[in-house]
From TrEMBL:
Function: Activator of cell division through the inhibition of FtsZ GTPase activity, therefore promoting FtsZ assembly into bundles of protofilaments necessary for the formation of the division Z ring. It is recruited early at mid-cell but it is not essential for cell division.
Organism taxonomic ancestry: Bacteria, Pseudomonadati, Myxococcota, Myxococcia, Myxococcales
Source organism (scientific name): Pendulispora brunnea
Subunit structure: Homodimer. Interacts with FtsZ.
InterPro entries per UniProt: Cell_div_ZapA-like (IPR007838), Cell_div_ZapA-like_sf (IPR036192)
Primary location class: cytoplasm
Protein known as: Cell division protein ZapA
Matching Gene3D superfamilies: 1.20.5.50
Length: 108
């Protein structure tokens, strides 16, 4: 985890300016705020309702759902990779054993 000192910054979401205390960079916070804005635009039509607490909560829930889906995908890929590596290692071990046995019979 990054050990930068926390600092006060401002971000804008749904036309509202928010003060945030974070150890993240301003660029990162701006990027994340833009992601929330994009999700708000996707879920709520432009207008007076877009920046309301219910629409922001809906965007937060949708982003949390997206995050969970990505984590699940990553976990599935990790399982596949571990299985593939295990199978490769078994084949390598088998090949090394065969080579060692072949060399042992030649020296006799």
């Amino acid at each position: 985890m990054d050990r930068r000192a926390s600092q006060v910054m401002h971000v804008q979401v749904a036309g509202q300016r928010y003060k945030v205390v974070s150890s993240s960079s301003q660029a990162e916070l701006t990027r994340l705020a833009a992601a929330v804005d994009a999700k708000l635009a996707e879920l709520a039509p432009r207008g007076p309702q877009q920046g309301t607490p219910p629409s922001i909560v809906l965007a937060a829930i949708a982003l949390a759902h997206d995050l969970e889906q990505e984590r699940a995908k990553r976990q599935r890929v990790e399982v596949k990779i571990r299985d593939l590596l295990r199978r490769i290692l078994v084949r390598i071990d088998s090949a090394l054993e065969s080579t060692a046995e072949g060399e042992g019979s030649r020296s006799e």
